[in-house]
Write a structure and sequence with these properties.
The complex is a heterodimer of chains A (331) and B (785). Chain A is an alpha+beta fold and 331 residues long. Helix content of chain A is 41%, strand content 21%. Chain A has 11 helices and 10 strands. In chain A, β8 and β9 form a beta hairpin. In chain A, α1 runs antiparallel to α2 and α2 runs antiparallel to α4. The radius of gyration of chain A is 42 Å and the shape is rod-shaped. Chain B has 785 residues and is α+β, with helices and mostly antiparallel strands. Chain B has a 7-stranded mixed sheet with strand order 26-29-30-34-33-32-31, sandwiched between helices. In chain B, α7 runs antiparallel to α10, α11 crosses α13 and α12 packs across α13. The radius of gyration of chain B is 41 Å and the shape is elongated. The chains are: A alpha+beta (331), B alpha+beta (785). Chains A and B meet through α5, β1, β2, β3 and β6 of A and α8, α11, α13, α14 and β26 of B.
Chain lengths: 331, 785
């Protein structure tokens, strides 16, 4: 029977000789398994006298503990080495990338459109829509442009061949949505209506036959011109940011009275003409079935395209319509 | 509308102060100042010179050499880029050392090797006229070497270029602008009555007017002038006309324009000798009637045009738009009939527009001139003409048509404050209105008051018009700003939210939003393989904008072709936009479509996209049915269903269409009617707790005839698998000779699962067998061993 000390020495020798975790596992079985000298020695203890058994048992236990420690230490060493080898083998150059899938981009008009919607939704407005091919009535008649009114000339209207000549047109502004909302909704009304509009215009850096506007309409009991000015100012601060302010200048639109142009002042002091606005004209209320003695309101509208140009630093409106991926992909 | 500060001061001498401030005041009155110019300044150093000779520059084509005499009798060589002068012409010379109004300093310098001793000036360079038409050629008779300002009587002045809105007929005159500005500044405004000395036979004996169209012509005034001047107008008048952008012609024309600019009343002169008996009449033209206008063009008239006729009922003038050639003033003219009339604005607008004859005069009549100013305008003309030697026959002919009653408007002060958001007293309101001629009769504080609308404000007729005037004169900028509060919660509609979800999904998949023009040219739809039947635009400027689209396809194909031509292939684009498929009620049908174009991708990429979209939007039972679609590859196209409802089409663009667009790659296509899709049956299925028990997967491969779609087989399996079948998915497709022509292998993974227990082998085997039998019997398919 081998001495316990010898067993420890042998275990140490074999553990060091093992160079992989698998080999070490075999060593563990050989040294501590059912058929190992250690187990055989433990079984042989039963043949000893009690005193000798106790002494030999203690020696065996001590040897077992030492062997376990040796094997565990070696196992940790080999596991660390195996992990290091694996990691080294798996090294990657993270710049070896051959594919970069394209990002999808929303068009600058849509981005601007949504930002504007979000500002007004935050101020309590709903978002209304209307048809792009519109009747002469909603585009002009309901908005206090009588037939033959010279103010119709302010709009270079494109008509379509549908119904009686001159009755159907490509809407020249988003204002028909005002009339449609007022016809279909009881006041109070707080809506904005973004949309596509058309004019007979030759395409150049600042004009396109197709463009986008956003229209606002508020109808309530005591809505005033002061409310309009305050709303424009609140929008200016919310959309453009601190340091921007607004002003109203008297102007003329058939569907509002009093009417005004509104300008935005940049922090550098420069003024930018943004859009038109005013108090809803009593004739418009009447055309839409709202009693102008009971309700007052204001409306405003401005171009989305030009805002997009300013916001993104684009200098030519036509770029918006090229659909060149090198343009679309920048925003 | 351009006005000079000096001219404004003739009506309100106390208008004063910083021109920038005046400009801001005008803008705040609704007369937006588009440009403010200081004129007649910086002319020091510019002198009168005579052209002695012109010679080509030896080394330059675009400039030549001009020798001028600047008063010392010496020939001074100047290089000049304009060629409009002749020997003997008098021209303005900016001498060496002059600083031009624009800031440029004139030095003696060499231009391509030739000395230039100064610069000859154009009208624009010295603030005299708009046109860069060349060097300003001055009238003869000026002394050489004399400073230009002194020779021409030019004084420093300020020019305001105003944008006048259609509702401000009064502001189309110096007088009207002065009235507004004086009211705002709180300084006196006055109109001095012209002094007219009358002599000779009375106008009434030499002329007459009859008005046959009293609605069209409310008033027609005539004065008869004799000994009318035939030469040029005085320099001061020519200078003012030049400054406001009107080229001086001769004394009579300039007088006419001057009075129009000053008082806003257009007027016309007839050579009295060419008007038999001095008889004039006003009537509507007859359809097809013809006359030759002053510009020598023969005009064919309609019954919507108003004309002035002679004794013989022949048209001699197109009322309010342009005079006739037959009575035109000439150098021989001795006596004139001077007409100042009021014409119906709508009629003038129609005629001017139809004939393309918009003029300063028609612009004023269209807005509505002041019928009460007619005598003043006639007298002012006579007064100015008298200074040039003309005499005025006694009396004025004043024929009237239908003169409307003066308008008085009741104004409620609390309504004014309620609309404006102000707190003005009735007295404050009337004190704002009175200075602009709105005469108020107050009924005490807080009481309604009557406002008489002045004759020059045809646009004003109701209380709201007066409220606007109060606001305008008070100043919008003084009104306290408030923000109205609403109890309504701001929100997007579900349609608007869905649109954003679609945009987010598509961009997240690397697809970019395009924005093609919504117009098409004739043939665009056919080129894209679609029926050529879009709604046409009545009055397009170009053929490319003459048809409304019936599909988003032509636009996106063009976008792909545009990028491919710039060496970017494989682009993925989408668009959400309106189309007009034809049909409709009061208005043409308008549908919102979503289209996706995937260049470099096969048709099945569109199917995958549709499935992801349907899943994202919780579309119930999204389907694809193979079958031909116009403009798509006949063997690679199909219609798209949502809960059995057709909502669009997908596939690959027909190679022939790709050829027409010069696209060299396969292009997958998906177009959906967004309205139909979003209104189709949608909604998340009821929540189910994920099973806690293990699932079993079974793979099945069938040989299936090509006519049977993989979707149909999957649907059969799904139906047969019953409750225990959690999912079925296609994982492999292959064709081989062994399988035979017209068949392919489709392999599906079936996952069986129960939320209540672990399934035993027998249950799974039974379900598997049911599925196999269903597929083989329904689809002429065979299980592959």
């Amino acid at each position: 029977m081998a001495e316990p000390e010898q067993l420890v020495v042998e275990a140490e020798r074999q553990a060091v000789a093992a160079t992989t975790l698998d080999e070490l596992s075999a060593v563990r079985t050989a040294i501590t398994g059912k058929r190992s000298p250690l187990v055989a020695a433990r079984k042989a203890l039963g043949d000893l006298e009690p005193d000798a058994r106790k002494q030999a048992g203690q020696a065996l236990n001590a040897a077992k503990a030492a062997i376990d420690e040796i094997l565990s230490a070696r196992e940790a060493e080999l596991a660390a080495a195996a992990r290091a080898a694996q990691l080294a083998a798996e090294r990657l150059d993270l710049t070896e990338v051959t594919e970069l899938p394209a990002d999808g981009h929303l068009h600058v008009i849509t981005q601007t459109w949504q930002e504007l919607e979000d500002v007004f939704v935050g101020m309590g407005y709903r978002v209304a829509e209307g048809p792009e091919i519109e009747s002469e009535w909603y585009n002009f008649g309901a908005l206090n442009f009588p037939l033959g009114h010279p103010a119709r000339d302010m709009y270079d209207t494109l008509y379509v061949d549908y119904g009686e000549p001159g009755t159907t047109l490509l809407r020249t502004h988003t204002s028909p949505v005002q009339a449609r909302v007022m016809e279909n909704q009881e006041p109070p009304i707080y809506v904005v209506a973004p949309g596509r509009c058309f004019r007979q215009d030759t395409a150049d850096a600042t004009h396109m036959p197709v463009f986008h506007q956003i229209e606002g309409l508020v109808v309530d009991r005591d809505t005033t011109l002061g409310d309009l000015a305050g709303t424009i100012e609140a929008f200016t601060a919310a959309y453009f940011g601190p340091g921007f302010s607004s002003r109203l200048r008297p102007s003329y639109f058939p569907f509002t009275e009093p009417s005004a142009e509104f300008d935005i002042q940049r922090p550098d002091g420069a003024w930018l003409e943004l859009g038109g606005c005013g108090m809803v004209h009593p004739n418009v209320f009447e055309a839409c079935g709202i009693d102008p003695e009971q309700w007052q309101g204001f409306a405003f509208g401005f171009g989305i395209d030009r805002l997009a140009l300013i916001r993104f630093g684009i200098d030519d409106l036509r770029e918006l319509w090229t659909n060149d991926i090198r343009f679309l992909g920048q925003f | 509308m351009k006005v000079l500060l000096s001219w404004l001061r003739e009506f309100a001498p106390d208008i004063d102060g910083d021109p920038e401030h005046l400009a801001e005041t005008l803008s705040n009155l609704g007369l937006a100042v588009e440009e403010l110019a200081h004129i007649g300044q910086g002319l020091d150093g510019i002198v009168i010179a005579e052209v002695l000779a012109t010679r080509p520059h030896p080394d330059a084509d675009r400039i030549h050499l001009v020798d001028v005499d600047a008063g010392d009798g010496e020939a001074l060589q100047v290089c000049c880029g304009a060629f409009n002068m002749a020997v003997g012409d008098l021209v303005p010379l900016a001498t060496v050392g002059t600083t031009m109004p624009g800031g440029m300093e004139i030095a003696r310098r060499k231009m391509r090797g030739q000395w230039s001793n100064g610069m000859l000036c154009s009208g624009a360079e010295i603030g005299m006229g708009d046109a860069h038409e060349g060097i300003l050629i001055l009238d003869g008779g000026l002394s050489l070497g004399v400073p230009l300002a002194e020779a021409l009587g030019i004084h420093p002045d300020v020019l305001f270029d105003l944008e006048v809105n259609p509702n401000r007929p009064d502001a189309m005159s110096v007088m009207g602008v002065a009235r507004d500005l004086a009211a705002r500044l709180g300084v006196p405004f006055m109109v001095t009555a012209p002094r007219v000395e009358e002599t000779g036979t009375s106008a009434a004996e030499r002329s007459s007017v009859s008005i046959a169209s009293p609605h069209f012509c409310r008033r027609f005034g005539i004065r008869v002038l004799d000994n009318v001047p035939s030469g040029a107008s005085p320099r001061w008048m020519a200078n003012r006309l030049l400054a406001v952008g009107q080229r001086p012609i001769n004394a009579v024309v300039d007088l006419s324009n001057y009075v129009m600019f000053e008082l806003g009343q257009p007027n016309h002169t007839y050579d009295l000798d060419l008007v038999p008996d001095g008889e004039l009449g006003v009537r509507m033209a007859r359809t097809g009637e013809q006359m030759v206008t002053l510009d020598g063009v023969e005009r064919t008239l309609t019954e919507d045009d108003g004309v002035i006729v002679n004794r013989d009922d022949e048209p001699i003038g197109l009322a309010g738009v342009m005079g006739g050639a037959s009575t035109e003033i000439s150098a021989d003219t001795q006596s004139v009939l001077l007409e100042a009339a009021w014409w119906d604005p709508m009629t003038i607008a129609r005629t001017a527009r139809r004939l393309g004859l918009r003029s300063e005069a028609s612009a004023r009549f269209e807005r509505g001139a002041d019928p009460d100013i007619i005598p003043l305008a006639l007298d002012r003309f006579a007064e100015l003409a008298a200074a040039l030697g003309a005499t005025t026959a006694p009396g004025m002919i004043d024929a009237t048509g239908n003169r409307p009653e003066p308008i008085t408007v009741r104004v409620r002060p609390q309504r004014v404050n309620s609309v404006l958001g102000t707190d003005l007293s009735a007295d404050e309101m009337t004190s704002l209105l009175e200075p602009i001629g709105f005469v108020c009769e107050t009924g005490g504080d807080g009481q309604d008051f009557g406002v008489s609308i002045p004759s020059w404000r045809i646009d004003s007729a109701t209380e709201i018009d007066v409220i606007e005037e109060v606001g305008r004169l008070h100043g919008y900028f003084k009104i306290a700003r408030t923000v109205p509060v609403t109890e309504q919660a701001g929100a997007l509609t579900s349609r608007q939210r869905d649109r954003r979800r679609i945009q987010a999904l598509l961009t997240g998949m690397g697809i970019t939003e395009a924005m093609p023009l919504p117009f098409l040219a004739p043939g665009d739809l056919a080129r894209a393989g679609l029926g050529d039947d879009g709604i046409t635009v009545t009055n397009p400027l170009v053929a490319e904008e003459s048809i409304m689209r019936t599909s988003l396809r032509p636009g996106l194909l063009k976008a792909v072709a545009y990028n491919a031509a710039r060496r970017t292939t494989g682009v993925s684009l989408f668009e959400i936009g309106r189309i007009n498929p034809g049909g409709g009620g009061d208005l043409p049908d308008e549908h919102e479509h979503l289209a996706v174009i995937l260049a470099g991708k096969e048709a099945t990429a569109a199917t995958t996209l549709w499935r992801r979209l349907a899943r994202h939007l919780a579309v119930t039972h999204p389907g694809v049915v193979n079958g031909p679609v116009d403009g798509l590859h006949p063997g690679r196209s199909g219609s798209v269903l949502a809960y059995g409802v057709p909502v669009g089409a997908l596939g690959e663009i027909d190679p022939q269409v790709l050829g027409a667009y010069e696209i060299d790659e396969r292009v997958a296509w998906l177009e959906l009617d967004l309205g139909a899709l979003l209104e189709a049956d949608r909604g998340l299925a009821p929540y189910r707790t994920p099973s806690r028990y293990p699932s079993s997967d079974v793979d099945l491969a069938f040989t299936v005839p090509d006519e049977v779609s993989a979707d149909e087989v999957a649907a059969t399996i799904a139906l047969a698998g019953g409750e225990l079948l959690a999912s079925v998915s296609l994982f492999d497709v292959f064709r081989s000779e062994q399988l035979g022509e017209g068949r392919r292998s489709l392999a599906y993974t079936l996952r069986f699962e129960s939320v209540a227990r672990t399934l035993n082998d027998a249950e799974v085997a039974a379900a598997r067998q049911t599925c196999i039998e269903a597929v083989t019997t329904t689809h002429n398919a065979a299980l592959r061993g």
